[in-house]
Fold:
Amino acid sequence: MQGGAMSILREGWSGGSLWRRWAGGVSRGVAGAIGLFALANAAVSLLHGWTPLDRNIWWIDSRPLPSWLANPIVLLSGGLLLAFAVKPLMTAWRRRATRAALVLLFAASLWNTFSYWGLLALGTISSPVVLPLSFWVGIVLAWVWFGVGRSLGANDESPGAGRWRRFLDRGMVVVGFLMVPALFPLAQMYSFGLTDYRRPADAAVVFGAAVWSGDRPSHALLDRVNTGIELYNEGLVDLLVMSGGPSSGPEIAHEVDVMRRLALDAGVPDEAVVLDYRGINSQATVDNCADIFLVHGIRKALAVSHFYHLPRVKMTFERAGLDVYTVPARETYILYALPYYMAREVAAIWVYYVRPILGF
Structure:
């Protein structure tokens, strides 16, 4: 066993083939995660007529194609990618089919990238992000394309080396598979979350945040409310929907009351402020907005929160059938706990993602 491990290390230092093998294993894991993700979405859409994805497009925008064509293509592509991850040694026809599917997905990601650049050039959206998520998805798809069909562990010199290589190859597959659910939401936060989709709408929904002792708004709350006030002063919205929950202690004012006070102090008339005291979490805010929108005749709205929160906000509003565009809060203060908030949001995104699929 020790000799097998040493031979692998010598091979890696001498010719770099070990690192190529590890990169191939990671690409298989990434392909498997993307394939499973695509299969889940396409299957749900075919079986139930709706998709767990939302219009911020988590990886590929297939909307230019009719759903009767797009869904089978994504379903087939997902199956081929998952098969490559599980069984990389493939026949010639499966290799050609897998690479053809990757070419189609790459073309879609390229179209998505140019569409994003076009919107930036027209001023329809604004963002500090030059290379959108679709660009990096295309890079990953190209990487997987080059890895398709490579034979792994075919010419080992000794049984010991073969066992070690198979162990390391499978370990790299697992690493690649786990990278996707960890990094994909983070990429969404930076790509989609930092993009400002502000436009004329009927209202802006401002999500609450912490209130400190003495009824002082936290920096996060202040930035969100000020961004909502900015949208109102620009004439983009006629109403501000303030949604939040109770504060950490009974002696501290409710988040919504503090948000209302900030808006009034900034000159927003009281009749332009709608209060939602039951917005204890993102899902509750969206559920409450379904009734609020109906009562106030709101058909299109903007949603204001911090960038890391907006992918989940968009996904939840889309599932409720509400037409909402996201606006990241203009931050005047970098949150010291930002890494924690983003890590927590990774888990929250996946919980919100699978909740309607699993029926809870």
Summary: The chain has a mean pLDDT of 85. The CA atoms of residues 325 and 348 lie 20 Å apart. The domain at 203-358 is CATH 3.40.50.620 (Rossmann fold).
